[in-house]
Amino acid sequence: MLMPTRPPSRCAEPGCRALTTTGRCDEHKRKPWAGRDDKAARYEGISSGEWRALKARVARRDHGCCYLCGTEPDPEDPDAEAFVPDHKTPMAEGGSARDLDNLGLLCPECDRVKSAAEAERGRQRYLARRRGGTPPGLT
To answer: Contact, 20 vs 29, CB < 8 A?
Structure first.
């Protein structure tokens, strides 16, 4: 029989008086992955295999080049970061998940810059919704 390593204490959930040795009682124990992002739902049900196939089609179409700056991947540099598929018009801004015209490859630098700009626009939309206004650029 295993003995607990510490004496029981009250559940960490405010107002709960149940004794436990794990921080939270069985009723208030958090479910693993609860509230985490569901990628399949976010990407309109695109499976990882379908996403890889879309990426391969876009890479062939664009000859592996970044659609923003035209940079080609360096085949001589094994440590180079991979080019990533990107939605030209973000899905949060009405872009299609599967439309090949809305997909392109980005080099790591363009991806960082574009992702930061998209995150800022998303933050502005969020703040505008909280204030009850219209996000900038959508008037």
So the answer is: no
Q: How far does CA 49 lie from the centroid of its chain?
A: 17
Judged by average pLDDT, the poorest of 2-6, 80-84, 134-138 is 134-138
Angstrom distance (rounded) from CA 59 to CA 74: 14
Q: Which residues contact 46 (CB under 8 A, 6 or more apart)?
A: 40, 54, 97, 98
Q: Rounded to an integer, what distance in angstroms lies between the CA atom of residue 3 and that of residue 1?
A: 6
Say which amino acid occupies 75.
P
Using CA atoms, how far apart are residues 108 and 29, in angstroms rounded to an integer? 40
CA dihedral (3, 9, 12, 13) positive or negative: positive
